[in-house]
Design brief:
The structure is a homodimer. The N and C termini of chain A lie far apart (about 40 Å). In chain A, the strands form 2 sheets. In chain A, strands 1, 2, 3, 4, 5, 6 and 7 form a 7-stranded antiparallel sheet that branches. A two-stranded antiparallel sheet of chain A has the order 8-9. Chain A has 8 helices and 9 strands. The first copy, chain A, folds into 2 domains: about 150 residues, Jelly Rolls, CATH 2.60.120.10; about 80 residues, Arc Repressor Mutant, subunit A. Helices cover about 40% and strands about 25% of the residues of chain A. By secondary structure, chain A is of the alpha+beta class. In chain A, helix 5 packs across helix 6 and helix 6 crosses helix 7. At the A-B interface, helix 2, helix 3 and helix 4 of A face helix 2, helix 3 and helix 4 of B. Chain A binds a DNA duplex through helix 7.
DNA sequence: CGCTAATTTGAGTGACTTCAAGCACAGTGG
DNA sequence: CCACTGTGCTTGAAGTCACTCAAATTAGCG
């Protein structure tokens, strides 16, 4: 990572409008802005490491960050992806625990770092901000519970179809119905909780059934209702 | 459920000391106390239903409540158990979503119901309380992430051993090393995310290996290090 | 410098194995 | 007596292993 020539101004940040920061006063937004640092992270950079202490959280200004846990013999379990406007690392800051996940950049990113004290100060003086933060964690918790149920009850095939649809909802499709996020088959396997080979096999099956089309990492979702049916949603 | 003859007084509630309520002023505790209702719930009673709106949350005064989601063809996925001092339903209240889980009493319980407005009021006027609540949800989120990784990567055998240890940590053992919570094999299966038969078979295996002892629903944990080894912890 | 050669990384396949689900049925005990 | 526990047997989904092939990176070198 390296520092960014032009530090993005929170006040002007597109992120402001629809994020947890939307209830901050101009003064509070300024305090975030002046307290923060911004850095450019290249693909592959680690933002923070599982088990390490972090003394602040990050706001994704640009790029995509993969949040994952490392399980048995180093196998990754991807928890979520953070895209512009999302914040990462706040869970560990708030609960005052060590980071329980690793954050790795998968598309060159600009991240703003906001120190813990700043966060705690805002919670103290702005109840609306606290509510936003709480709602965010509660929504994430709800999603985590859904995922637990899926992973425990659905087949790999169902989960893979579901993940494709979730990726579509999160990152969208471009003109040719191609998913706007590029993942390796291994990463997809680490989301679904299966082996890389199984993902490869199932994706070709989906292609054979006319549900999707494959060109390397480009995956086009051709038959969304069909995928939804397989995913049991 | 039926109303309790003697409404437990928050001020005197043992729960107060170690719960999210510990930072409330006497006035605030009073407001919770006078705004709340208490009811006795018998085993099998449903406290709230997945998909329904709930206009408040519950504090478990006594008993055990099972929190679960209903997945494909009605199969339960147990998310957690709530014991005295725990609060349930707050996730949906805070995120202003419909309940994403069902809460069912598995040991006769006394639950205090605290209306949403009351909760929002406290968040507004007591930042320390907000912090407690946030830390609670963040810790739960961390646990959920752990569970996702486990269920995605560990075998049923490993998960079952782990669940036994988690139940020990949560509910403790009595004099004879017997787990202080009584679950059906099906409920254990619904925690682990497996079939009832698999739980039965694995429990007998564990017994054969001298790790546990079985007397109906009474499960004694004989060799905790052994279980920990199997669970990969 | 430019242009192969060498290495790495990811996608894809086939053969084989194994874990665990599902079904059917037999006890059993509150 | 019905819900729960327990057992045997079968089958299938998915994991593992062992490769090939293609593309992308890096290194080597005249």
């Amino acid at each position: 990572m390296k520092s960014v020539p032009h530090v993005p101004i929170c006040d002007e940040c597109i992120i402001k409008g629809h994020s947890i920061f939307k209830d901050l006063t101009t003064d509070q937004l300024d305090s975030v802005h002046y307290g923060k640092g911004s850095s450019l992270y290249k693909r592959g950079n680690i933002v923070y490491h599982e088990g390490h202490r972090i003394n602040g959280f990050y706001c994704v200004q640009d790029g995509i960050v993969k949040i994952y846990k490392t399980g048995i013999d180093g196998k990754e379990q991807i928890i979520r992806f953070a895209k512009p406007g999302d914040i990462i690392g706040f869970r560990s800051v708030l609960s005052k625990e060590l980071a329980c996940t690793t954050a790795k950049v998968i598309e060159d990113s600009v991240l703003c770092f906001i120190p813990s004290e700043n966060l705690f100060q805002l919670v103290k003086e702005n109840p609306a901000f606290s509510m936003q933060l709480m709602q965010l964690t509660c929504r994430e918790l709800g999603e985590a519970n859904n995922f637990i149920t899926d992973i425990a009850q659905k087949t790999v095939r169902e989960r893979l179809a579901e993940i494709l649809l979730i990726l579509m909802d999160t990152f969208g499709l471009d003109s040719d119905k191609v998913l706007k996020i590029s993942l390796t088959r291994e990463e997809m396997a680490n989301m679904v909780g299966t082996a890389t080979e199984s993902v490869i096999r199932l994706l070709s099956e989906f292609k054979l059934d006319g549900l999707i089309d494959l060109h390397g990492r480009k995956i086009s979702l051709l038959d969304i209702p069909g995928l939804r049916k397989i995913a049991n949603m």
